């Protein structure tokens, strides 16, 4: 029986989890692929660190040793930096290897180039683990894109931020206390900027956009905001209104207009992401035939992520085409080139004493300094420019102000 030879770049949480899964699921892989999978080499940074790796596997700090292997079929990249990982994967493709990556930042920046290069060399690219850990959102979108036209994708794509918001609400913690809990539990890095300021979710959203719509918006046009502005008071007010704060990436296409945002929003019980708690991730996909699909599961961790990489291994070893994500989708609705803003419902928090003096439709005065308003986004932003201490959060879905405010009186 022939053998599939694999090299792993990086032996941290993801790389080690993938290595262990190949060992524990050897027979399942053989049954699916018709060939045995063997790890031929592992690229590491520190040779002095002890690792539980079979002695027959080449362990090296030099990527050239991997490229020079007599047989190399798949390169799995599980390193966090953009460079030199991009150049490693380019060289692997040029050698004729399939590639798999779990590196969201690198793939957000260079994924399109790698996909095009792979197409040229007739190899496949697996990137399921770049977006939502163990949730098979990439595979699901690939299947949907055979016929369905995706119109919108919404997702909770960062488990750290979701954990912090959950802790703040359930345990009545401040942001700083909830962040400290996330760090103590290993959910947040010592420097949590990428997570709490929305960069991590932004990279994932751009990868999803490329796959779902064949293109991505101009990065500078994407509204990206983190969760650091959310206070215990805001969390408490939202809860009494029957709402929850969620950090959600939204990618939407209308006509030929593609828009995206990554920011905190408020959702009610009817929203599919309302019950997604803790470090869980979830993605809601809306397409023209199937309607809405919501996928939920662990967004990180050794074995959830290894699961995504293993499924990609099966995908690339079947040498699937890499055309999805290369061709822009058709227009959803023909019409004007102008993106017409729709009126939305917002919770605003302001120190303004005379907010009624501003040209904005106030539905209710919730409590001191907090209001529910109806407005298009430009009106809210104009109000913000007039009052820099204004905080504003959109409420997704229908909002019944009378029933919500009745709860505040109880």
TrEMBL record:
NADPH binds at residue 104. L-homoserine binds at residue 189. The keyword Chaperone does not apply. InterPro entries: Asp/hSer_DH_NAD-bd, HDH, HDH_cat, HDH_CS, NAD(P)-bd_dom_sf. It catalyses: L-homoserine + NADP(+) = L-aspartate 4-semialdehyde + NADPH + H(+). Pathway: Amino-acid biosynthesis; L-methionine biosynthesis via de novo pathway; L-homoserine from L-aspartate: step 3/3; Amino-acid biosynthesis; L-threonine biosynthesis; L-threonine from L-aspartate: step 3/5. Keywords: Amino-acid biosynthesis, Methionine biosynthesis, NADP, Oxidoreductase, Sodium, Threonine biosynthesis. GO terms for biological process: methionine biosynthetic process; threonine biosynthetic process. Its EC number is 1.1.1.3. It is an enzyme of class 1 (oxidoreductase). It comes from the Bacteria. The active site is at residue 204. Residues 136-314 form the Homoserine dehydrogenase catalytic domain. GO terms for molecular function: homoserine dehydrogenase activity; NADP binding. Residues 10-127 form the Aspartate/homoserine dehydrogenase NAD-binding domain. Belongs to the homoserine dehydrogenase family. PANTHER family: HOMOSERINE DEHYDROGENASE. This is Homoserine dehydrogenase. It comes from Neobacillus cucumis.
């Amino acid at each position: 029986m022939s053998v599939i030879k694999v090299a792993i770049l990086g032996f941290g949480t993801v790389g080690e989890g993938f290595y262990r899964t190949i060992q524990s699921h050897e027979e399942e892989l053989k049954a699916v692929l018709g060939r045995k999978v063997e790890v031929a080499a592992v690229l590491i940074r520190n040779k002095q660190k002890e690792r539980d790796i079979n002695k027959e596997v080449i362990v090296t700090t030099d990527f050239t040793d991997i490229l020079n292997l007599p047989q190399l079929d798949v390169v799995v990249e599980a390193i966090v930096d953009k460079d030199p990982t991009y150049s490693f994967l380019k060289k692997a493709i040029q050698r004729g290897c399939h590639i798999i990556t779990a590196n969201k930042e690198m793939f957000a920046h260079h994924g399109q180039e790698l996909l095009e290069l792979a197409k040229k060399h007739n190899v496949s690219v697996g990137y399921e683990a770049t977006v939502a850990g163990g949730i098979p959102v990439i595979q699901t979108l690939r299947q949907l894109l055979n016929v369905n036209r995706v119109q919108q994708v919404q997702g909770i794509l960062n488990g750290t931020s979701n954990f912090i918001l959950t802790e703040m609400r359930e345990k009545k913690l401040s942001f700083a206390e909830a962040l400290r809990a996330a760090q103590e539990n290993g959910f947040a890095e010592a420097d949590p900027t990428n997570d709490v300021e929305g960069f991590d979710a932004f990279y994932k959203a751009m990868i999803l956009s490329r796959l779902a719509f064949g293109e991505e918006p101009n990065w500078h046009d994407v509204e990206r905001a983190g969760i650091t502005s959310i206070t215990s008071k805001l969390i408490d007010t939202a809860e009494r209104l029957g709402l929850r704060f969620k950090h959600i990436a939204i990618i939407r296409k209308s006509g030929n207009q593609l828009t995206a945002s990554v920011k905190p929003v408020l959702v009610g019980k009817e929203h599919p992401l309302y019950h997604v708690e803790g470090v869980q991730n979830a993605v809601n996909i809306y397409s023209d035939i199937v309607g809405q699909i919501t996928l939920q599961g662990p967004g990180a961790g050794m074995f959830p992520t290894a699961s995504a990489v293993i499924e990609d291994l099966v995908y690339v070893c079947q040498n699937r085409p890499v055309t999805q994500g290369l061709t822009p989708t058709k227009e959803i609705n023909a019409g004007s080139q102008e993106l017409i803003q729709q009126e939305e419902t917002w919770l605003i928090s302001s120190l303004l004493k005379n907010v009624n003096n501003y040209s904005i439709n106030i539905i209710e005065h919730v409590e001191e300094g907090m209001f529910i308003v109806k407005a298009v986004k430009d009106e809210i932003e104009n109000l913000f420019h007039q009052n820099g201490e204004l905080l504003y959060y959109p409420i997704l879905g229908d909002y019944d102000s009378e029933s919500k405010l009745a709860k505040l009186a109880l």
